Amino acid sequence: FMKTITKSECKFFRSILPQYYQHMRDCKNTLLCRFFGLHRIKPGRMHLLVMTNMFDTERIIHERYDLKGSTLGRAVTEAEKKNPTVILKDLDF
Predict the structure, then answer these.
(1) Which band of pLDDT confidence, cut at 50, 70 and 90, is reported for residue 65?
(2) Residue 56 and residue 49: Cα distance in Å, rounded?
(3) pTM for the complete prediction?
(4) Across-strand partners of 35?
(5) I need a surface site. Which of 10, 28, 51, 52 has the fewest CB within 10 A?
(6) d(CA 89, CA 2)
(7) Which of 7, 61, 56, 67 minimizes the C-alpha distance to 34?
(8) What is the pLDDT of residues 46-59, one digit of tens each?
(9) How far apart are CA 16 and CA 81, in angstroms?
(10) Residue 80: pLDDT above 90?
(11) Which long-range contacts (CB under 8 A, 24 or more apart) does 51-55 make?
(12) Measured over all CA atoms, what is the biggest interatomic distance in the chain, rounded to whole angstroms?
């Protein structure tokens, strides 16, 4: 899974890297997302974060959320809620 991130987010991930790496080594069964790479593509100055897909599991997932910590536009419509694979947002929590 790849996600574009801002320059400030990239800076943050780089600042926590030593502690994150140590935690991942010490806690093999952690539920934290596993990050594999942080890359910058120069022509557009795009930053990419490469991570595991949290939903790659054989377990049944009853609800999925995309939490951003915001309220602006952070709810799905009633029509979207009828879709069994809908990804809910902050105000649906």
Answers:
(1) confident
(2) 18
(3) 0.60
(4) 51
(5) 28
(6) 20
(7) 56
(8) 999 999 876 667 77
(9) 36
(10) yes
(11) 51/1, 51/2, 51/3, 52/1, 53/1
(12) 44
